[in-house]
């Protein structure tokens, strides 16, 4: 979508204040803990762009609240497994030897969008230590929610997702659908705890030096499998839709999302 297209579909620009008001109407409350996924362009023209949206979210939760966003860096994986596109085999040794180690302060997110990329650099942001599936947090308890993120558990029980679930967080999907709801990856790991694991490798700092670290992690569902869960949550009134800019947001309790997915998935074969 070009900027001209964005202008054409926006009758009037959204602002920090108008977005904050719509988020309040959607159920965001002071003191809340929220996991946020966004598509900025889906919301239309915003005066201030990603800055205004982040400000509106922080206004909504206030001093005692916590905002968390994914800050994944999927390019810090083994290049031998890259498929879209694959890289020449002759490059592999060079990429493994010279890709900079994961650094929470400097490693950019990849494929997360403008809001999440800005958010990881926001004043006071704390980012978890996982090289490919990190999360960034701003607000009360940011350090605690991002601590202890184990290398072999990117989206499971040591990840910020489990901490958010324990904290009774809400999930906000702003201009996006349930196919990007990372909390459902935690649900799938609880539904199928014995799923096969696959080999991975990333450049990290270990004992003060850069290493190419090999590890394993669980196989994950394609996110398209999350869409029926989300549709069911909406149909049963467990998720709510609200206006946001020229688009919409979705709000659902993390506990409801995980419990609902488990009801659908437990005892079933792993989807293919």
From TrEMBL:
The keyword Transcription regulation does not apply. GO terms for biological process: response to antibiotic. This is Aminoglycoside N(3)-acetyltransferase. It catalyses: a 2-deoxystreptamine antibiotic + acetyl-CoA = an N(3)-acetyl-2-deoxystreptamine antibiotic + CoA + H(+). It comes from the Bacteria. The keyword Transferase applies. Belongs to the antibiotic N-acetyltransferase family. Keywords: Acyltransferase, Antibiotic resistance, Transferase. InterPro entries: Amioglycoside_AcTrfase, Antibiotic_NAT-like. It comes from Achromobacter insuavis AXX-A. GO terms for molecular function: aminoglycoside 3-N-acetyltransferase activity. Its EC number is 2.3.1.-.
């Amino acid at each position: 979508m070009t900027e001209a297209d964005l202008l054409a579909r926006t009758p009037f620009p959204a602002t920090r204040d108008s977005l904050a008001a719509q988020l309040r109407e959607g159920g965001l409350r002071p003191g809340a803990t929220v996991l946020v996924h966004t598509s900025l362009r889906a919301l239309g023209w915003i005066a201030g762009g990603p800055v205004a949206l982040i400000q509106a979210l922080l206004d909504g939760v206030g001093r005692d609240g916590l905002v968390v966003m994914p800050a994944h860096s999927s390019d810090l994986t083994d290049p031998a497994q890259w498929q879209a596109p694959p890289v020449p085999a002759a490059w592999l040794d060079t990429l493994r030897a010279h890709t900079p180690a994961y650094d929470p302060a400097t490693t950019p997110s990849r494929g997360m969008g403008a809001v999440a990329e800005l958010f990881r650099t926001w004043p006071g942001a704390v980012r978890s230590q996982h090289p490919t599936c990190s999360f960034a947090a701003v607000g009360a308890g940011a350090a605690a929610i991002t601590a202890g993120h184990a290398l072999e558990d990117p989206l499971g029980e040591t990840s910020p997702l489990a901490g958010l679930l324990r904290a009774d967080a809400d999930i906000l999907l702003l201009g996006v659908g349930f196919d990007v709801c990372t909390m459902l990856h935690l649900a799938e790991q609880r539904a199928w705890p014995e799923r096969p694991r696959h080999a991975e490798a990333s450049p990290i700092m270990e004992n003060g030096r850069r290493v190419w670290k090999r590890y394993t992690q669980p196989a994950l569902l394609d996110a398209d499998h999350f869409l029926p869960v989300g549709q069911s949550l909406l149909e049963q009134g467990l998720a709510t839709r609200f206006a946001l800019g020229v688009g919409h947001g979705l709000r659902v309790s993390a506990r409801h999302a995980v419990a609902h997915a488990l009801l659908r998935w437990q005892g079933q074969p792993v989807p293919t």
